[in-house]
Write a structure and sequence with these properties.
CATH class of the largest domain in chain A: Mainly Alpha
CATH superfamily of the largest domain in chain A: GntR ligand-binding domain-like
Number of strands of chain A: 3
Number of domains of chain A: 2
Strand order of the largest sheet of chain A: 1-3-2
Oligomer: homodimer
Radius of gyration of chain A: 19 Å
Number of helices of chain A: 10
DNA sequence: CATCAGTAAAAAAACGATATTTAATTTGAC
DNA sequence: GTCAAATTAAATATCGTTTTTTTACTGATG
């Protein structure tokens, strides 16, 4: 069945979700997972039929993806999935370094006991899956990705600047997209476990300088990874 | 006449602009100038009639204002003009300091002769209006705002990071909005002329440290200004 | 053989009517 | 008189058609 009945609101949690939000979430997932290829056209009519909604619902869902820069639109020639490039990823990584370092610094300065507890908890969950990692199965990588995000979110969760957190979040999502697109065999990358441990220690010690440096390094190490895998893909066209 | 005929494309420059873009630009201007009050409702039906377009055109225009955070929307209860608050402005200013300082640093590092020329030119135009300022007239304040923006844009125009420039731009617009909303008698504020001169000198000298510091100070000085004027407004409700 | 105009097909943008949801108001019971 | 349920009104969200624009195709012309 191509058009899953979205009126079937027998599910528990999805109360009151608007059609636009549903379509938005669905397309968003497609882009972030790489299912929808960069620069590919997003035809309204096709999507309309696929999701069983009206055309302006689709258009509005696509418009909202402009917020996160996940789609582009220009003049009278429709919507496209956001392109990818090495230069773009480097810019994302550089800005992430700046924002994440600032957010961690703020959190260390302002974080209370609750924040510390969140960090400890999130790190525990992440460390667990990173040590006893079976590695291969899809589901466990998904779970690792979730816990990794939760850990990094926890680290900055005492930063009170909504704008900073918002921009940081957008960049994080793009970063994950690049990893998903370019890295074909999804596993837990490099020796990320000890990096997380080091960041955790520095943060709990309230060592701003060190935490900042480690955070920057952590992000910057993703660049050669993407370079190695994205460059061949781009060249092979 | 309430509904200006947008099909009247007898004007020169406005070629190929889509209806959504026109409505978007119009409402955007309303928000940035403070004509549309913060948190006020943006009723689709009313806007539809005002601009003489269909309802989904209005909705899409409003959706695109979500990109810059100039409007908010939640569930099934429509669109609102973005709210303002002192806390919000402080966050904007803090993040602007971070981003602008970085962008200036990058520009000083990478800027070529063309960049320098742009900076010199933009500064000249700004300095001119700031010295011989007649001050009062609306039109000259508008012109000063334009030149001020151009100068600051020129300063960062050698920064190659599109994401950084994009976020910076969004924050700059919000900043201008706060000034317009809270400052009733629009004049060229405080002794901004010498600040610009100092920044200009530091940048042309390629003194990164100093330029960064001056840029941060320049931005931070807007905070007490807004505090002084926005606090009474908020209290008077 | 390339270029260009003209035509046909496809897609995007725009519209306005309909269905749903939320907010406001009235009514009725305690 | 107060609160709650029911009714009405207003506004949002959704839909599918119509109009406009772009793109692809075809054939004539230099």
């Amino acid at each position: 069945m191509l058009a899953p009945d979205r009126n079937n609101d027998s599910r528990e949690g999805a109360a009151g979700k608007t059609a636009i939000e549903e379509v938005h979430a669905e397309i968003r997932k497609g882009i972030l997972t790489g299912l929808l290829e960069p620069e590919s056209r997003l035809r309204v009519e096709a999507l309309r039929k696929e999701y069983g909604v009206g055309s302006s619902t689709v258009r509005e869902a696509l418009s909202r993806l402009l917020i996160e820069n996940l789609v582009t639109t220009e003049g009278q020639r429709g919507f496209h999935v956001a392109p990818v490039s090495l230069a773009d990823f480097r810019q994302i990584a550089e800005l992430r370094m700046l924002l994440e370092a600032q957010a961690v610094t703020d959190s260390i300065r302002d974080g209370d006991d609750d924040w510390e507890a969140r960090v400890v908890g999130a790190h525990h969950r992440l460390a667990k899956i990173e040590t006893e990692m079976p590695g291969k199965e899809r589901s466990s990588v998904d779970e690792w990705e979730r816990r990794n995000r939760d850990f990094h979110d926890a680290l900055v969760s005492a930063c009170g600047n909504r704008w900073l957190l918002n921009f940081r979040d957008i960049l994080y999502n793009h970063s994950v997209r690049y990893l998903r697109i370019s890295v074909t065999e999804r596993t837990i990358p490099r020796d990320v476990r000890s990096e997380h441990q080091a960041i955790f220690n520095a943060v709990i010690d309230r060592d701003v300088e060190l935490a900042e440096k480690l955070t920057r390094d952590h992000i910057w190490r993703t660049v050669p990874e993407i370079e190695a895998r994205l460059a061949p893909i781009a060249a092979a066209e």
